[in-house]
Design brief:
It is a single chain. By secondary structure, the protein is α/β, with parallel strands linked by helices. It has three domains: 3-184, Rossmann fold (3-Layer(aba) Sandwich); 187-304, Helicase, Ruva Protein, domain 3; 320-430, no CATH class. 51% of the residues lie in helices and 8% in strands. The protein has 21 helices and nine strands. Strand 4 and strand 5 (144-146) form a beta hairpin. The longest helix has 34 residues, at 286-319. The relative contact order is 0.09. The structure holds adenosine-5'-diphosphate (ADP) and magnesium ion.
């Protein structure tokens, strides 16, 4: 094993970890790169299979030619043949033009067929032919075309089982599997888990300019014990969620548990995935893993959306100079339960909050901003100029005035102030207005 070359590859492709099994996989990829052999990469979902085909291509004689990564699982069965092998105009409804197909455009290059186990049988037959003879036929044509494409494939399904069940052609399997590379699951990688945690925490802190999260000793131990069914993808999503959603920067095992890191090694996760490091066991957990992956992605994207929304609101507020904007901010400041990572970042990392300054200008409608007339008319500017009011005092004033306008009707008041009735009740109580 050439340690130096492996380290260089890791640096170039952002691969983190020192686990021997990971090094071995990278080493095989480097060794096999200059050859023309087909490579089949095994590994559970989220273990980092996708980087290896690129490493292979970039270190092969084909490196100046095209590289395409195709996810066979995401192409609809009806169009997969035409995507891969091209079609003739008019050969089916919707075939408005000739299409060259990946095997045509990637001539002299490399194709990465991800989730190859998902290919329909008819496509498998076409694939076998092109691998054995270099020949293929476009959909709707009879002319035989030639191409020279190297295939690197990846799978997280149990290929032996798929063959037994008649879902995957055995001859194609042997053709693809000339060189197998196994990517180890995260739970086997020991200290790499911590290294990856730190890397993702650092990446996120850079991206959002927040303080990176760090682990307590018990949290570190828990991460080492956990089974990681979604592997590195799951770890990355977890770190993203915690960094964005949690207000804590020191992450304890209790916080991790609240984010779904279970401590029960004999629990559901452990049982379902026990022994999953061997490729032949991958199929059982396939759909389960997919579901988990989807959930993790969903959670992560919700987190991102919340963050984006908050940022949008804040950037709009920054453009507003008025009572309306201030009272919005006030709501956030008075609702610690609503605190967001962005607020957190603002308070802890970027700068101290601006001192609240009230001046007349704040209460004049700006050219391009419209305020609800009543809230502007009813504010006693002189009183405010005399004694700059705190956020709280201004809010109290707004509530009193709004209550007056609505003859004490709390529902209407809450609606007018755009706060929930619950918040209004709480504030009325806090401000001693409920007499
Ligand atoms: N060793 C690693 N170091 C850094 N990031 C990694 C590592 N392995 C995987 N990742 C990241 O984890 C995510 C999932 O990897 P991916 O290659 O898509 O998994 P797979 O194809 O095996 O399901 C990607 O964002 C990838 O960049
Ligand atoms: Mg993948």
């Amino acid at each position: 094993m050439n340690e130096k070359v492996i380290q260089q590859i890791k640096q170039r492709y952002g691969i983190v970890g020192n686990y021997e099994g990971l090094n071995r996989s990278i080493d095989i990829a480097i060794q096999v790169a200059p050859t023309e052999l087909s490579v089949l990469i095994y590994g559970e979902s989220g273990v980092g299979k996708e980087v290896l085909p690129k490493v292979i291509h970039d270190n092969s004689v084909r490196k100046h030619n095209k590289y395409f990564a195709i996810n066979c699982g995401s192409l609809p069965e009806g169009t997969i043949d035409s995507e891969l092998f091209g079609h003739k105009k008019g050969s089916f409804t919707g075939a408005l033009d000739d299409r060259e197909g990946y095997f045509g455009v990637a001539n002299n290059g490399t194709l990465f067929l991800d989730e190859v186990g998902e290919l329909p049988l008819a496509t498998q037959a076409r694939l076998l032919r092109v691998l054995e003879t270099g020949e293929y036929i476009r959909v709707g044509e009879s002319e035989v075309r030639k191409t020279n494409v190297r295939i690197v494939a990846a799978t997280n399904v149990n290929m032996q089982k798929a063959i037994r069940e008649g879902k995957f052609r055995e001859d194609l399997y042997y053709r693809l599997n000339t060189i197998p590379i196994n990517m180890p699951p995260l739970r086997e990688r020991g200290r790499d888990i911590e290294l990856l945690f730190r890397k993702f925490a650092y990446d996120i802190s850079e991206k959002y300019r927040i303080e990176p999260v760090r682990l307590t000793e018990d949290a570190r131990q828990l991460l080492l014990r956990y089974k990681w069914p979604g592997n590195i993808r799951q770890l990355r999503n977890l770190v993203e969620q915690i960094s964005i959603i949690s207000q804590e920067r020191e992450i304890t095992s209790d916080i991790l548990k609240a984010y779904g890191v279970s401590d029960d090694s004999s629990g559901e996760t452990g049982l379902v995935l026990h022994g999953m490091n061997r490729p032949e066991h991958a199929a059982e957990a396939h759909s389960y893993e997919k579901e988990r992956d989807m959930l993790f992605q969903l959670l992560s994207s919700i987190g991102k959306e919340v963050k984006d929304l908050k940022e949008l609101v804040h950037s709009n507020l920054d453009n507003l100079h008025g009572a309306q904007a201030d009272s919005f901010r006030m709501f956030e400041e008075e609702r610690p339960d609503m605190a967001t990572p962005i607020q957190y970042a603002r308070q802890t990392v970027m700068q101290p909050p601006h001192p609240y300054v009230v001046n007349e200008q704040h209460f004049q409608p700006q050219n391009n901003v419209t305020y609800p007339q009543e809230s502007i008319q009813d504010v006693d500017i002189e009183a405010i100029e005399e004694t700059p009011m705190s956020n709280k005092a201004l809010m109290k004033k707004n509530i009193i005035e709004s209550l007056k306008r609505n003859n004490g009707n709390r529902k209407k008041t809450a609606k007018e102030l755009e706060i929930s009735e619950r918040t209004l009740y709480r504030k009325i109580k806090d401000y001693g207005l409920d007499i």
